[in-house]
Amino acid sequence: MSLPLKEIPRNQSLPMSEEQALYIIERASKDQFLAQDIEQLRDKCCLFVNDIMREVNLALAQQDKRVPALLRSKEDTAISLRGAARERERLAQQRRELAEAMVIGALLNSNNPDWNPLDPATDRSRGSLLLALLRSALP
Hints:
By secondary structure, the protein is mostly helical. The protein has 4 helices and no strands.
């Protein structure tokens, strides 16, 4: 099956735009053989992004300073342990959200060499091939 080829102007020095990537993905998805390859590639990309977020989350968790229970000066009660558990869960949730924001922000700005995650004014999300592949799975 031969799909019509729409010529997309490409400058070899610039990365592929998300529009170009979505067009290629759309064309490949219509081919019975390439559609399976696109789906496998999409699955691998999702696993890759998930792994990166997990690694960032672990790196952030390693920054936490914890005092082992045996070295604490006071005796724990059920109430204090419950409060400490809630606090740990709250901090873990914040780390997960920060890791997600960092990874997604980096992906959205992967074609933006001036992006500074601490300066919202530098955000010029242009997308990328990876984001196009991930977004193409959305309904």
